[in-house]
Amino acid sequence: MFSCAQPAIAPAFPAFLHACPAVHELRAPAGTAAHAGLAALLLGVVWGTRPVLWVSTMPDWYPPGLAWAGVDPACCLFAQARDDAEALGAAEVALRGGMAGVVACEALSRLAAKRLALAAKQGGGLGLVLRHAPAQTREDSTAFASRWMVHPAPGSPHAPALRAELLYAKGAMPGTYLFTLKEGWDAEAPLSLPGLRRAG
Amino acid sequence: MQKRRFLSLACAEPDDLAALALWCQAFTPLTTPDPPDGVMLDITGCAHLFSGETGLMARLAARLPSARMAVADTAAAAWGLARYGKPGNPDILLLPLAALRLAPEPIARLRRIGIRTIGQLTRLPRGGLVAGYGQTPALRLAQALGEAPEVVRFITAPPEWREAESFMEPLWLPGQLQAVLAKLAARLCARLTAATLGATSLTARFYRVDRACPAIHLAFAAPCRDEAQIAKLLIEKLAQEIDPGFGIEAVALEAPLTEPLALVQQDMGAKPPDYARPLNTLLNRLGSTRIWRVTPHASHIPEFATERVTVKARPVAWPKPHHPRPLRLLNPPVLVTAIAPVPDDPPVQFTWESKTHRLRWATGPERIARDWWAHPHDSTRPEAEKIRDYYQVEDMEAARFWLFRAGLHEGVAAPRWYLHGLFA
Fold this sequence. Notes:
The structure holds two protein chains of two kinds.
Chain A: E1 22-28, H1 34-47, E2 52-56, H2 63-69, E3 76-80, H3 84-96, E4 100-104, H4 110-123, E5 126-132, E6 146-156, E7 159-169, E8 175-180
Parallel strand pairs in A: 1-5, 1-6, 2-3, 2-4, 4-5
Antiparallel strand pairs in A: 6-7, 7-8
Chain B: E1 6-10, H1 17-24, E2 30-34, E3 38-42, H2 52-63, E4 68-72, H3 75-84, H4 104-112, H5 118-122, H6 126-133, H7 135-145, E5 162-171, H8 174-194, E6 197-208, E7 215-224, H9 227-241, E8 248-260, H10 276-286, E9 291-296, E10 306-309, E11 328-339, E12 349-352, E13 355-368, E14 388-395, E15 400-406, E16 416-422
Helix pairs in contact in B: 3-7, 6-7, 8-9
């Protein structure tokens, strides 16, 4: 099994992220996986080895990559939904049952957000909604505990970094946080190219 | 031992005999399709549930108005009486020889010596019958009279864990069916609790008046005997999967597979959370192919390094990955156009979905070759063509990608660049 938390990061975490019956919305620009990185980091730090449902219409999350980011794939269940509504419904079932739910969807109505938040409150779970969306949309809801815009940030090859703008949070000031995804164990330097090449 | 009684059913119009045999399990567990035109039922010990054999035949006749049926002590006699007998006359000796399921050729030969009915056939000496006409007529006669055994292969009987309810009037309102399902679930769960068992799969069968038998199948991630949960899952599927047609006259709830499930003490301190409940709901809502766990698979090729297993499987501990792996894996890899110095340097720039990414740095290569021992040798495509050199790259906006080059410079074909994953 994996050591669940990265002790180097945990103190730097915003305190309100540790509060558990909560749903967070993580947005990222199209063509990146930064929100999945922050989701993996959050699950590793806050959720530990309890079961997690990852649901999407196209679940292309890669379990070894999730393991690298600090999630134990043995606790993960993956589900493929026909459409966003079914994905949100599946995440709601998981949250109500006390599991953590990670759902990737494009459209998210205020009603769906409210339902997810209620399900998390009933089950005591941790919900994460991953979206490729701009920082502001017309359907922005205050049902979730927080809303983030996550961009990849320059980092070293062994520790990808994420720059997360806090767009909205209950009881916290907006701001920008820098998270570092480190491996959960002391891995050797994985690649053996002499030095890093600067290209351009 | 009780005397066996067989009921043979001969349909006038062609029918789906397998479905009809399944539907007939509402009357007796032992039924079998009897091609070309009928169904055979073993009604031993079942007739009293339908107020005797006459009552059972009346119920069947009401549902199958054009069918002919007869009850006899042997399957062969029932078959003959249903097709050639007069209603109300159970004497097989008066039936023609065709009632013995004989081929036309021995029947014609027997007619030539004046044998037209089974009664006349019984009066012939058996030894001479075998010598002159072969084994078959004597064997069929003995089977019809109950002197020789006959093997009848019945379809799988319903499991032991079955609760059924039949109704005076057919039901079709959803509320009525929901109430029945809740009641049957409670009864089945009470029996399972007494036996300390839990169901791992459940089937609810709905016997319609028009001889159809739709069913709901449930699967469980862990053995389950929670009546509220079972009823909820059944009711969720009821509206989508069951068409009541002209009405449903009987409902049965069966547990084909059971596993031991120990009794747990209630209300004694904190219980460990039970994740089987949401998993059961998801498993039945999405189906077993659309929800899975993953286990590691011994392969260096990234897309084959994981394997989907069922939710029921026990989680396997994952080994530590030796190299960074992306969070998202594009499967299949996306062909991109990349600019890279020759012969084998990492790329400087690549274009994906008409967006150009200039790269700040790259690490690699991590060379992954194909498992050549598992593929036939192809002399036109050497193994060097199948090599993948993986690079982790970061572009100017700090997005990280996993690219690989397939093939080598100065190979048979020009090297191709593919995008295989996203790190961040």
